[in-house]
Design a protein that fits this description.
alpha+beta; 3 domains; Spore germination protein; UPF0353/GerABKA_families
Length: 512
């Protein structure tokens, strides 16, 4: 199998004491690498030794490497001893705290491709790894997909080391653990599992580690690929992980007892476990007053219902149960459809597809052009379709309301799942009327009730509320005042559920 080619041919042989043999092995592995830098030097005074250093151009800090390490190796090694030369070079020549010994060729190659410098020393069956990485990245940018009115404006970067710092800066706790592993036989992508020891459930951490080790793949280029390879609900449109680009949201999840997955080269991190309720929560909900946050959450849940139900309900009522409409409304609908040669179902599907194409085109075009296309294209197509009697004005209003409602959900992956389910409701309503409409919602609820994310029911706290206790419902549709949210959600360990304790003396003063 091609994906196992690298695993089967992995070079795990130890390094040899013969420097030339190590050089020959490195030359074979890095053949036709235009950006590899290799050089052999002889250092020392009366006692000399040959060394050979290797690194990838533009992946290391050349100033640090040349001005410190190489300068010391060339100019300050006159008192090189006849024995223990490796340790002497390690202690005297390398000015870096992050150094370690390397014993196999595979380890050396891995570090070189990761941006480190490897120094081979003649006569020793080990090499020296010097960490002086300096890779170009776009740094910390402003969050674009999860915009918050209040709170941090920072977003994660593609560089894993920057993302680790963004979490460390927010959670100054020695119990914040970061376990790194490598995924992808060819890409060697670094994946960090982040959790707070004593708060996160150990079985959840062990389960995600087991899932990551449960497959072998050529490469991982984004967190979305890792998500698909480790999730269990592969045939469900609803995500088992919650993706976010906001460090404050990830830090909040860690404090609640969740686990964060950081994938190198991806600006989105994954939170687990997750529930449907968590997808309706935005970062600035916690920063706003509880009345405002509650009102906005009600609008989000209402928007999710509208985006799933409105087109199907319109088709079911107009085609099968028009008697549910008042006389004035029924006449208004009939007048709006006068001259339209197509059925209601075809009208709705036509406008749905037109909107989906506009949405996709707007995403792929550059920013200003995409916004212009979305606004102008929607107005022009909608007005032209109505003027040509291809669709009725009511269908344009229905689809516009549906589209707007979909964007009230603050998670794109979760909103996309509702967009998929909407077509199921439309088809069932087209064939079975209101019975199909209700049947579609029953299928949706049954499906959601059967989903779990790392052992956590997807519909908590609305279903299986006994598992989480009464406190989980305080941060659902209605967000209680912050001083009432004394317990962590069900994600946390049972003995770590309490997160807020009021000072009793202060409480007495407030009563007085």
């Amino acid at each position: 199998m091609s994906v196992l080619h690298d695993e089967q041919n992995k070079i795990i042989a130890p390094l040899t004491r013969n420097l030339q043999e190590n050089i020959d092995a490195v030359d074979v592995l890095f053949k036709d690498w235009a950006d590899i830098v290799k050089r052999k030097l002889t250092v020392g005074g009366s006692n000399t030794v040959d060394i050979y250093f290797v690194y990838v151009d533009n992946m290391v800090d050349k100033a640090l490497l040349e001005e410190d390490t190489l300068w010391n190796l060339i100019h300050w090694m006159d008192d090189m001893p006849a024995e223990n030369q490796f340790d002497y070079i390690k202690d005297k020549a390398v000015i870096s705290a992050d150094i370690s010994d390397v014993y196999t060729l595979h380890e050396a190659v891995k570090f070189i491709m990761g941006g480190d410098t490897i120094i081979f020393v003649d006569g020793y069956d080990k090499a020296l790894k010097v960490s002086n990485r300096h890779m170009e990245n776009r740094g910390v940018q402003k969050a674009e997909n999860e915009v918050a009115v209040r709170g941090s404006k920072e977003s994660f970067s593609e560089a894993l080391f920057i993302n680790r710092v963004l979490l460390r800066r927010r959670i100054k706790d020695t119990n914040l653990k970061i376990v790194q592993t490598t995924v992808g036989t060819r890409t060697q992508t670094e994946v960090a599992i982040v959790y707070i020891e004593g708060v996160a459930k150990p079985e959840v951490v062990e389960e995600i580690q087991r899932r990551i080790k449960n497959f072998v793949v050529d490469g991982i280029f984004d967190s979305g690929m890792l998500e698909q390879l480790t999730e269990r609900n592969v045939y469900s449109p609803f995500p088992e992980f919650q993706a976010t680009e906001r460090p404050d949201k990830a830090a909040s999840g860690l404090v609640e007892g969740r686990v964060v997955l950081i994938v190198d080269n991806s600006p989105m991190v994954l939170l687990l476990p997750t529930t449907m309720n968590s997808f309706f929560q935005a970062s600035d909900d916690t920063y706003s007053r509880w009345e405002v946050a509650t009102m906005i959450r009600i609008l989000r849940f209402l928007g999710a219902f509208i985006t799933v139900a409105l087109p199907g309900l319109y088709i079911a009522v107009v085609n099968y149960q028009p008697e549910l409409l008042s006389s004035a409304l029924a006449l208004s609908f009939a007048a709006a459809r006068e001259g339209v040669p197509f059925s209601v179902v075809f009208e709705v599907i036509l406008m749905e597809f037109a909107f989906e194409m506009l949405l996709e085109a707007g995403i792929r075009l550059p920013g200003p052009m995409g916004s212009t296309l979305g606004i102008v294209g929607g107005l022009v197509i909608g007005d032209a379709a109505v003027s040509a009697n291809l669709v009725s004005p009511m269908v344009v209003i229905i689809i516009a309301m549906t589209a707007i409602s979909a964007f009230t959900v603050p998670n794109e992956a979760f909103a996309a799942a509702f967009r998929v389910i909407r077509y199921l409701i439309i088809i069932l309503s087209a064939f079975l009327g209101l019975y199909g409409f209700v049947l579609g919602f029953m299928i949706l609820l049954i499906h959601l009730a059967g989903l779990k994310s790392f052992g956590i029911p997807y519909l908590l706290p609305f279903a299986a509320s006994g598992m989480g206790g009464k406190s989980d419902g305080r941060d659902a549709i209605i967000r209680f005042p912050l001083n009432k949210l004394t317990d962590r959600p069900i994600y946390a360990k049972d003995d770590a559920r309490i997160r807020l304790v009021r000072n009793h003396d202060e409480k007495k003063k407030q009563k007085q």
